[in-house]
Each structure stands twice: as C-alpha cells, then as structure tokens.
Amino acid sequence: MLIFDLMNDMLTRRAAATAERNAHLESLQRLRENNRQIISSLLQMVGRSPRRGNVNIHLFYAGSLDGRTVLRKDRLVYYECEDLPQNFSLDVAYPDTDELVICDSYRSDEILYEELPVTHPERYNARIRNKVDPQITWVLALPMHREDAAPAGVLCAFGNKRVLTDATTRRTFQSLAVGVTDVIVRLKALELEEETRVTERA
C-alpha cells in the first residue's frame, strides 16, 4: 500500500507540474500573439505618420549564430507600403561584416539616416548583394536601446520615395519611432521572462 501511495503521489505531482507547465505555455503563446498585434499596430502608426507619404518598416532582433552576433529580421511583424521584392530575402545581417545602415546603427548604438546613391548595391558583399533592393533610396535605422546593454535590435525604416528628407519631418518621425522601440523592448522583455518560467518548469 505504501508503494502504491508513493506512486500515486508521484503521478499526482507530475500531473500538477505538467498542468502548470502547459498553463505557462498557453500564457506564453497568448503573450506572444498579443505582443505581435500591439507591435504590428505600432508599426502601422509609425509607417503612416509622415505627411508626405508612408514608409516601410522592418524589425531586426539581435541574436547569435555560430558564435557571431547577428540581426535577424522579424518575418511576422512589419509594415510595407512599397513593392521592393528583392529586399524580401534578407533574413540575417552580420554587424561585423555587412555594409548596411542597420549594422552601423547597431554597432554605434546611434540613430543613422542615409540617402543611398544609385550605386549602393556595389558596396555590399556577395552574400547580401542580391538581397537589398536597388530601388531603395534611403534608410533610417534606430537601435532598440536596452539599459546598460547592447541594443536589442534595430528598427529599420526605408523606401524608394524620399519622404524624410526634411529635417523637421525626420526629427518628428524619429521621436515617434524611438517611443515605439521602447515599447517593443519592454514587450520582448516580458516574453523572455515568461519563456524563462516555462524553461524552469520543463
């Protein structure tokens, strides 16, 4: 009887632990979906904010690949208003080697704006040369600041139509975008906390 009681107790505890872990997994999935919806709405708001026209916005999050720091494009959440198909295939950027505005912004932890020359595809290395659309004429990159740490990633605004050439318009856009990146960093931190709870209960 004692053995059966012990086994029953173990099974009960295991079932409770499994139920708790499943509850955390469901909570994590809900949190991720809510965050995606919030961030998507924010990107639409920012992308449509300039008076002279909309801008495209992609998010790149810092991570690691084969021991190197990389910037991975968020494939689920973005805002696009122009058809720039060649740009679609850029999934990963390497800040230490790729001559991209987002990489410079990440390394320097500074907001960078550049109006690209017609010849800009020539400056890219072979890995990314065909992954940056030659129609792009400007890029604005904003690091997603974290307190006392490297940026969490980069918000990249870009396009063919130059809608941010006016300094005042650009400053207004930047201020709005910086506020959005602050929200994104906090939402991603909440996701990480929940992921850690799930992992601890695995």
Note down, in words, how this protein is organized:
This is GAF domain-containing protein. It comes from Nonomuraea coxensis DSM 45129. It is a single chain. This protein has about 200 residues and is α+β, with helices and mostly antiparallel strands. The chain has one domain (about 10-200): 2-Layer Sandwich (Beta-Lactamase), CATH 3.30.450. It is built from three helices and six strands. A six-stranded antiparallel β-sheet has the order 3-2-1-6-5-4, sandwiched between helices. A hairpin with a 2-residue loop joins strand 1 (about 55-65) and strand 2. Helix 1 (about 1-45) runs antiparallel to helix 3 (about 165-200). It starts with a helix and ends with a helix. The relative contact order is 0.16. The model has no long low-confidence stretch (mean pLDDT about 85).
